[in-house]
Amino acid sequence: MFKYLIELLKGFFLEFKGAKARNVDLEVEKPQFLKREINWNVHVLESSVKARVLDLKDEKGQPVVREGCFRLKVETSTLTPPPVSPNAKDKPPLLEFPEVFQQVAIVEPSLHKVTALGTCTLSNPSLLPLWRKKVKRETRVEREKIERALRVLQEMIEKEELKGVTFSGYFKNVPNGTIKIAGNDLIVDIDGKNPEFRSLMVFRAFTKDGKTKNVLIFLD
Amino acid sequence: MIGYLAVEKLNNKFVGGLLVVDERGIPQEFKYTEPIVPNELQRILYGKSLDYFLKTEIIAATLVKKIEKPVDFIFTKDLELLEIDQRVFYLSERREEISEVRKISEEEYLVPYREGALRIVGKVLPDKLRKLSEMLEEGLDIFEPFERLEKALEYVCSST
Q1: B45: Cβ contacts below 8 Å, ≥ 6 apart
Q2: Which of helix, strand or coil describes residue A84?
Q3: Rounded Cα–Cα distance for residues B8 and B31 (Å)
Q4: Element housing A155 (H / E)
Q5: Of A97, A191, B30, B89, which sees the most CB atoms within 10 A?
Q6: Is B28–A135 a contact, with Cβ atoms under 8 angstroms apart?
Q7: Minimum Cα–Cα distance from A137: chain B residue
Q8: pLDDT tens digits, residue range A74-105?
Q9: Average pLDDT for residues A61-85, to the nearest whole number?
């Protein structure tokens, strides 16, 4: 009973006095306001693309071609950088536009010329290979020339002691110069630009001491 | 005088020469071209026509134009070079023995030469043919200067 009376008194006082309250200052500083005027220039380019559409359907086993047409609208826009408001002194712009680097899209190619084939003409009639003439052995010899050659050969055999002699060949139009015997032919390194030409009979002589030598008998 | 014309391809170098000799075979004039080595791009661009074009129009025709001595004949062993000038004749040796000059066709002749015959292709005038026959009878070794010409071209190619 006593407890009940105490609680009743507490409730009476609360109602009379009210609940405890704390004072909160709600006033706040106003935020800084930066004004930017932004002008966006938007260029709208319009173009249209026409496309022809053919629709092929098989209706009741018969092919039918339907033709339609539609337009495709293409919009493109470009942006220009906003001018900075005079109120925004020393303030960074809202949007920073990236730097644009200009690059030439098509680099002019350097030209290379493929030269047409050509040649220079040089002149040199004194080249060594031109003055080395090959003289071929003749296949026919006049009787008179054989007799003359044999007379010379006979004298030679009498003077030098030879074991044997063989016939190598008869050559016509042999120019003056250094003569080499190459197989059946003569190689002549011609002396001078106006050499004399002679006929030549060649024999091979074998000496008693086992050596061989060529005997050249000029007939002209 | 007789001219000898040859175009050789030696170690991928194209070189041509024209040797003029007198009746005894003594050199009177020798003209040759700088060796030409076509580059890879030129080979691609000219294709299969490269060898023919180089031999005829670039080398042989240039040489014949530059000749100074009066020649009765310009002999070649290459049939392709016949077209460049009317003075150029194709020369080859035949084994058949003939006793006199024989006309095989409009532009082909057989001339007695040693134990066989010479085959000459080209338009030869009768007096020129007679003159050639006489020179051959006197013992002209008609093919021998070709050997010297080829050796001279080898020499030119090796020394450049």
Answers
A1: A114
A2: coil
A3: 14
A4: helix A143-159
A5: B89
A6: no
A7: B141
A8: 445 555 555 555 555 555 555 555 565 555 55
A9: 52
pLDDT at residue A219, as a whole number: 84
Beta-sheet strands, E only, within A45-161: 45-59, 62-76, 121-123, 132-135
C-alpha dihedral sign at B40, B41, B47, B49? negative
Token pair belonging to A25: 């200052």
Region A12-33 average pLDDT:
58
Q: Which two tokens stand for residue A174?
A: 């042999």
Report whether B74 contacts B83 (CB < 8 A): no
Contact B58 A118 (CB under 8 A): yes
Question: In the prediction, which pLDDT does A97 show?
Answer: 57
Q: What is the pLDDT of residue A99?
A: 60
ipTM for the predicted complex comes to 0.76
Q: Per-residue b/e over A130-152, b at no fewer than 16 CB within 10 Å? A: bbbbbbbebeebeeebeeebeee
Chain B hits for A192, Cβ within 8 Å: none
The predicted model gives A9-26 an average pLDDT of 60
How do residues A24-35 score in pLDDT, each as one tens digit?
A: 555 656 656 555
Most A-contacting residue of B32, B50, B114 (CB-CB within 10 A), to test interface: B32
For A134, the closest of B29, B115, B144 (CB atoms) is: B144
Residue A69 scores a pLDDT above 60: no
Nearest to B58 among A119, A125, A129 (CB): A119
Q: Do B148 and A129 touch (CB under 8 A)?
A: yes
Structure tokens at A73: 């609208």
In whole angstroms, how large is the CA radius of gyration of chain A?
Answer: 63
Give the mean model confidence (pLDDT) for residues B54-69: 93
Beta carbons of A128 and B42 less than 8 Å apart: no
Q: What is the pLDDT of residue A66?
A: 55
Query: Which amino acid is present at B114?
Result: R
Of A123, A129, A172, nearest to B152 by CB-CB distance is A129
